[in-house]
Amino acid sequence: MTTWMDVTDLVRWRGPLTGIRRVQVELGARLVADGGRLVHFDRAAGRFRQLDDRMVSRILDTDRSAITAGMDAPIARRARRWGAATTHRLGHAARRVTLRPLLTLRPVNWLTGGFRRGDQLVVVGLQWRTPGMTAELERLRARRGIRVGLFVHDVLPVTHPHVNPADMVDSFGPAIGRAVAAADVVLVISDATAAELRGLGVVGAVQPIRLVRMAAEPPGAAEVEPVQLGLGDRPFVVAVGWFLPRKNYVLLYQTYRLAAERGIELPVLVIAGRLPPHPDELYRMIRTDPVVAGRIVIASDVDDAGRRWLYRHCRFAAMVSVAEGWGLPISEALAYGKTCVASDIPTSHEAGGDAVVYTSPFDSGACLARFVELLDDTRRAELERRIAARVPVTWDDSYADLRAALGSAPSSGSAG
């Protein structure tokens, strides 16, 4: 039996890793080291294609400036050579990813006969947004007996349509039910998402839902100060995430404006996140409001090394999203020993526990109070001691959860 993983999103992706792409790299590297294989979905043909060794290597470790020449060898060959150390090495390589354009790298080996009955196919990315993939999964299950594990990272377009793009809201609802029905086991990254899925009634009566815990990269990879931000020696708070409505940067903007009105001096706020193609009015307001000039810095061009530096040197972090499938910025901050002002939502509590402080995502006064609380060195040190006492989830743990979840999947055709 072979376990395959779909990495279609990675093949298409340009730029530093974000949440789902990072999950694909970390789990994909461990799967390859464990003898698994990677595929991507060819929309034109309506079929999966296996990635050759060169393509796998490029996808999982593309920052050549940070990797030794030896890492250019095919990952599968390195796995056999390194043995037990492979997972650790691949994890560090994967964490240095800054994807370059991959249009010239053609995946090879049509999977006309590559899948065998009893094989497993894990879909980690946004399968419901890939035309034709669900139909092919249905065909593979029915005709070839392939067992499918489907990640559902969140159901926010249904539960929180007001903070998601209209096209996503319109397409997600009809697509998610069919996508889940094409799976033998549904994989979630938080208990909150599992509860929401059950509440939507799209999971079959005998379909298992299994939790794959999310990790954050441990310190150790390259860190480079993003000098273009001009921070100098000024203390700062970092908020990491795309500049999207659900990230709720409007609350941080209002919090900093309120602090200015009350004469409260806060550290500089660095918003490190990719901008959408057409930034909204909030972006313009922050960039042009003289009250927050110099107090809020939007850093849309920070790479992974810069992001690590920001976590390492920040006073604390902030993640005040209205809704999330998982609180990855919280986990990342904790990995660097830093606490966080987090929105009081279920996934934040799953990620942060008692090591962070919580605020309503709709109350700038409450958010300001939490910022002021964390300016107190004694209070911050107390939370940092709690962080140090935690046993962090590693990507090895995440991969072990995945393997266990796949082992729980019933035979294809018996679910739903």
Structure in a nutshell:
The protein has 17 helices and 15 strands. The protein is α/β, with parallel strands linked by helices and 416 residues long. It has a seven-stranded mixed beta sheet, sandwiched between helices. A six-stranded parallel beta sheet has the order 12-11-10-13-14-15, sandwiched between helices. Strands 2-5 form a two-stranded antiparallel ribbon.
- The CATH architecture of the largest domain would be 3-Layer(aba) Sandwich
> Which radius of gyration do the C-alpha atoms yield?
22 Å
As for the number of domains, it is: 2
Strand order within the widest beta sheet: 4-3-1-6-7-8-9
Tell me roughly what share of residues is in helical segments: 40-55%
Please describe the topology of this protein:
Layout: E1 3-6, H1 8-12, E2 15-16, H2 19-33, E3 37-42, E4 47-50, H3 53-60, H4 75-82, H5 86-94, E5 98-99, E6 120-123, H6 133-144, E7 147-152, H7 156-159, H8 166-181, E8 185-188, H9 191-200, E9 209-211, E10 236-240, H10 249-261, E11 268-272, H11 281-288, E12 296-299, H12 304-313, E13 316-319, H13 328-335, E14 340-343, H14 346-352, E15 357-359, H15 364-375, H16 377-389, H17 395-407
Helix pairs in contact: 2-5, 2-17, 10-15
Protein model, in words:
This protein has 416 residues and is an alpha/beta fold. The protein has helices at 8-12, 19-33, 53-60, 75-82, 86-94, 133-144, 156-159, 166-181, 191-200, 249-261, 281-288, 304-313, 328-335, 346-352, 364-375, 377-389, 395-407; strands at residues 3-6, 15-16, 37-42, 47-50, 98-99, 120-123, 147-152, 185-188, 209-211, 236-240, 268-272, 296-299, 316-319, 340-343, 357-359. The protein has a 7-stranded mixed β-sheet, with helices on both faces. Helix 10 links the parallel strand 10 and strand 11. Helix 2 (19-33) packs antiparallel against helix 5, helix 2 packs across helix 17 and helix 10 crosses helix 15 (364-375). It starts with a strand and ends in a 9-residue tail after the last helix. The model is unreliable at 62-110 (pLDDT under 50).
